[in-house]
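Appendix B. Extra example for self-study. Work through it before the problem class; the solution is given directly after the inputs so you can check yourself.
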Amino acid sequence: MRCYIALMIVILVATLQPRDCVASDCLPPVSDRLMAPGTNEVPDFQKHVVPLLGRLGCNGRACHGSFQGRGGFRLSLFGYDFKMDHEALTAESSSGEESRVDLDLPGKSLVIAKPSQQIAHEGGRRFEAGGWEHELLERWIAAGAQGILRPRELRHLRIEPSEVVFGPDADPVEVRVVAIWQDGAQEDVTPLCRFRTNDDSVMTVDQDGVVASVGPGDTHLIAFYDNGVAAIPVIRSIARVAEAQNDPSDIPRTKIDQFIQEKLNKLGIKSSPVCTDAEFLRRVSIDLTGTLPTPHEVESFLADDSAGKRNRKIDELLQRPAYAAWWANKLCDYTGCNPTQQAELGQDTSVQWYMWIYQRLRENTPYNDLVARIVLATGRDEGQTYDEYAADVSAYFRDDSPADFSDRQTMPHYWTRRSMEEPDDKALAFAHSFLGIQMQCAQCHKHPFAPWTQDDFKQFSKFFEPIHFGVDSESDERYREMAKEVGLNVRGKNGSAIRNDVLKHAQAGGTIPWRELLIEERSEPAKLSLLRSGVVEIAPDEDPRRPIMDWMSEPSNPWFARAFVNRVWAGYFHVGIVDPPDELNPANPPSNPRLLNWLTDKFIENEYNIKWLHRQIVTSDAYQRSWKANASNQDDRRNFSRTVPRRIPAEVVYDALKQAVAATDQLQQVRSDLSRRAIGHLSMRLAGTYAMHVFGKPERAVNCDCERVNSPTLLQSVFMQNDPLVEQRLAESGWIRQISEAEQAGRPFVTEDFIRQAWLRTVNRPPTDTELSRAQQHVKKCESVGEGVQDLLWALINTKEFLLNH
Amino acid sequence: MSSSRIHLSRRQMLKIGVLGGGFSLGKFLQLQADGGKQDSERSAILVFLGGGPSHQDTFDLKPGAPDEYRGEFSPIATATPGIEICEHLPLLAQRSKKYSLIRGISHNLAAHSLGTSYLMTGNRPTPVVKYPLYGSVVSKEFPAANDLPSFVSIDRPVEGPGYLGPEYGPLSTGEKPRYGQPFRVRGITLGDGLTIGKYRSRQELLSDIDTAFDGYERLDDSVRGLDRFSKQAYQIISSPRARSAFDLTLESDQQIDRFGRHDFGQSLLLTSRLIEAGVRFVTVLLEGWDTHQDNFNTLGRELLPRLDQSLAALFDRLDQQGRLDSTSVLVTGEFGRTPKVNDRAGRDHWAQAMVALMAGGDVHGGQVIGATNDKAEGPVDEGFSPDDLAASFLQNIGIDPKTEYASNVGRPITVIRDGAPIDELFG
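Solution. Structure tokens for the complete assembly:
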């Protein structure tokens, strides 16, 4: 295998290369050149004609880019299919009378007459007759309307200036876009670009690249040309800079805080102070372990006066099994562990999947190693016979001392899901799981925002063609024999799913025939482009996943480590540094590129140590800031100057309710028995239940992090206030029973203690005096203290303070 | 297409992470505060005949087919000359001018879960996109008033809100109403020993101690959302309107008898009450149509008489209340059944042909649209797809089936991508 990384596209870091286009090297814009007297320049199909059609909107979805075309004329959606577009332009028009491109009378061509509305055009006037656009098209036609054989490679697209910072006057700024081709040619392509703002409450941009300020804040200006995408930050400071600046003597405590403060200073935003100890403990317990702290834990943490207690708590939490349980759940989100999509025995295999990741997180397996053991998973170990393989897998299901699936070196279920049967589906899922990129659009056409073309996707998809789930021809005979013995009906060549009646043999200790993950031989070597990061040659018998994994393990890989770092970050804040976190593309730049670069580089330097990453983030002040906003940061939701409250995830709500009502002597067990926790094994069993639906637990059925929804809804409030499940929790509360028993037995107690406990159990802080007396007033009204405290628990779990992580 | 249009759709896509459907929670709250998009008075009812009802033994009989195909039932005339349906549907036969039958609907997903997914969303299921239920689309377009849920699914929900996100999921009652037994609606009925008085006193306590975010109520969508939804939930749970809508003891004996004292009758009676109260979309299930054996006894003695009685009563009630014009009704299963009767007097799964019934709204009643061949094997001509049926249903509710939403799969999605409304239905 030879891997050429030389072609690594560096569009991602486009904004980091502020190099002015030297006037002599750089062609002025085509709009000026063509209108200059005496020129005989012929516009180029790739460089000028197709980008012009894109900019005019001709190849958009509502116009000729529609898969049905418009008025009998269809262009490739968002361009870049030069062959198709050339054929469409030069074909006879649907009316057959006039030509779209008339070589004899170029000016009469429909592609000029219609968009300039010399002839009626449903799409309206796109340019003026006689303008430079007209001139461009007419000259191209007059010179023979040549297409291109092979697309030229765009090396780089650059916007100048490299950043727009609006001053107090907020005068509009005109930008310029330069295309740099692989052969070194440079051209000002401003009039041929499409422009976009990523936040129109901060800035707008017109089609000539004039950027106008709308309000304070920061966003990006994006320019599209050919298959290039470039972005620059656009910033307007909050007006009252002087009073909003962070105090210069306030030196950032960590590297993360330093990058954040640099950005905030540019914006004139003053950070909120760090939160209280109680807020910190609740927040970090939820985010790191998916679990609320116990009343005892809260009290001892608050009573601890020693320095460094927050960092010690973080270290302690990272050692708890619940840390591995909660983050295994998150990694199951990213990788798509879904009981209904498993090839067979959905509950069992998804729990195996979950437990396998759980075990890796317990061991703190480096992220690249963990992923490699999924990506390169095989059914059999090296040198194993089919019989040995079948016996091994059967042993996981034995009732009597089963073998532990999580001891396996590799985890093959990722590849064997029913939703992964087609190579295209594998490619989409893989790009999402491990690269944090969305390629769906490129499956059918040029991606409108990312640089991906349909060909990029096709080539990537081809890598996955040889991955199969079934029975290989050498083992088929043995497989069928075993199937016969256990009464498994086999249809077709690829074996059959194990049913429960067949599984019984394995549970009793026997061996049953399992299908396996196979890499089939290709008929010939393949030479494939790896997302334009290089061309890979794959021998017929080579595992195509190997070069992908090698490529991902390169420290210079632009996505692999970055996607994970960004997702982990998004798990601690309400947004990623790139957000949505699974849309790493140059049109969706990070809010703080230096921060993301630093964290990614250091993560790689620290050998993909996952706990290192968690620790870096949660020990920062940025993570520990209060949600209480000041005048300068109340509208900040992307620069981490304060905490943005977010609803606690579905599984955490479920477990927290159980914990809040548990009897005192069961509190520990309710927390530590992972097999009965929604963040633990029960996660699979609960998938798809009403409560999980209502609180937005993802089914993990689609390739999107957004499938998990953590925003409040009406049904959630109905659920918390009056669902039988919540009522049952309260009615069967072991703790309330304890109180009632004490009451009935006439044992002495202090009501105030119960009230304090109720607060500590739910919102994890002691009540204030006002709250205490209000609660006492309520309890007095009730027939018993037990009933009063039950009401109080009901009220507390319905507060915003309980449902939000704040 | 202008560049501003491109950026608009991109903005929507960026917001997907906030709330499925490319619609930020903040915007949603604003819209709700403005009273929602309540210019429409349309509502809809979906009766799902789960299991796959035999088309040729219900609304598409083939008396002329050979014995091994024909089955045991005879056709009877309806109020519309030339239209015949099964003899076990006499009340519906009398009311044939109220609805239209669509015969020759055809697809190829003869498995329950896939077929159900297809018919309940109007989109062929794929492993990578979860499509929303019609009710979810309707709750998004026409939310109900604040003290009512927009979308109620009696019993369990079939499928979910898909890419639109949990905001648009149904309130699922969790059980069917049973005559003579108290009916508990998940989330609405108060638990044992809990009275409205008790619930109110808990609420008072809650509002006094839920003060941590005082002064910051408008800070972020999550805070605003919880505040608003908590109040709305209280309105729904405590409001006389919602409580009475779910209370079947308020119905007269005469009405109860007309709908029937069985689960399905009570479910449709409840449906009427909910629609009358202002709920936008109600889903009702009548299951048991998966008749691999004993098809004729199951249909003739149980399912058809119930369907006949209750559906006829629903039409009468909608009509008397003057609501038939604003209430769109769709009755369908997930597929039809095999043309030949099997040796257990049953019929097996058959997706090449099925039948559906539509009524209300702009549907021009008393018609049969489409046809199957003489053995009920498949449509003559091209037939219709489930997508066409879905497009017709949504159009009848007042929603353009070509409406586009941002989705959670990285591209905008047309509500009903492939189908077109069946014009004859409305002619």
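Self-check: Chain B touches chain A through 70 residues (CB under 8 Å). If your reasoning did not lead you there, revisit section 3.
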